[in-house]
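Here we describe the complex-level prediction in full. Unlike the single-chain runs in Section 2.1, the two entities below were treated as one system.
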Amino acid sequence: MANIFSKYDLVSMPVVDQENHLIGRITIDDVVDVLEEEGSEDMAYIAGAPDEEITEDSIFKLARARLPWLLVAFMGELLAAFILNQFDVTLQQKLMIASFIPIIMAMGGSTAQQASVIVIRGLATGDLSLRDTGPRLLKEFRISLLNSLFFAIVLFLIVYLWDSAYFATILAVSIFVVINNAAIIGALVPLTFKRLKIDPALAAAPFISTTNDILGILIYLTISTLLLSHGI
Amino acid sequence: MANIFSKYDLVSMPVVDQENHLIGRITIDDVVDVLEEEGSEDMAYIAGAPDEEITEDSIFKLARARLPWLLVAFMGELLAAFILNQFDVTLQQKLMIASFIPIIMAMGGSTAQQASVIVIRGLATGDLSLRDTGPRLLKEFRISLLNSLFFAIVLFLIVYLWDSAYFATILAVSIFVVINNAAIIGALVPLTFKRLKIDPALAAAPFISTTNDILGILIYLTISTLLLSHGI
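The structure predicted for the assembly as a whole is:
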């Protein structure tokens, strides 16, 4: 609706019922209010702090409002701890694997957030529609292919100098798979939310980042275990 | 400026020079355009994908636009890998410490993002000003005290049942310190950016999350090392 006001520089718009009888009008100052509201709402969803008023005084209310989103992260990462614990033989064999858990998590998380925010924003402005799902996923994948290749090469060189070629290979393959996987998840989740008629902005922070942390760790440790056992 | 339009339901506003001569006017449809632009700009900054057009076709341009923000994360987390590597004696002593790196990182990151987005939004709407810096930091700290206490207790109970009281103590203390530290960082960084006259929205994703990952890991591993060596 705001997009129509913006596109045609309208200052007011008639509202009609199904038989085209005039039942009221929307003025542009309502649009300004809605836009301000919506912009900060989307931002707040991305952070997992929806509907929070900066002027709210009760610390208890504020803490409780933020708690559910933190709980999503908490339970997801508890699952990640459980998964990591299953790989203790691999970690024992090569302790340095643990040092690179943060970089794998962060590169996946950042990539997914970039992809998701671009898609959420595109859906909000109307520049992107559900019909573009296939092409958009392909586009995000092609972007991430380039960036993942860049980071795979840089990480290979750094870890090769730091440790060994075989551990450098593990990390290069892992970061390549994790980044591309994250780009697909980041673009796919908001599009799926939109298709299910749930606000895509809701998908961003808690859901996508937790999913990506778990998948990133699984991918990294599985690749590590496979390559270590084949003695590369 | 948009806040004034919204507050007084204006449809146009005169622009005067220093001697109060009328030199033009701003109409509300300009405000709508600016608001749409600003809202998506802030969202894009938070994701580290500024100025990106959904309709841009060149994959190379898009990949290059997103690269700098990924590089910030990459270099920060490489530092995290280096730090973790320094603690290999601690990790060897108690391998399970590695399994809880993700939960420590994620809880710190989520808390910081909540605090930062609330502050960024408050500064953008004018509900929060630099004069409120002290009270705001105190408020964020009090909110995080409640939530960190909640997660410290829950994590203590889970790890106590899973492993041991001494490892549960390490994790409870760590998550408590990390969450509170993250809340302060999350609120302080955008306020500092604002003071330095840099767009606070720029602070959000890449800078705050990377800082928090590094500090979170340092805090967790330092507490682990201290408590392990004292044989708690």
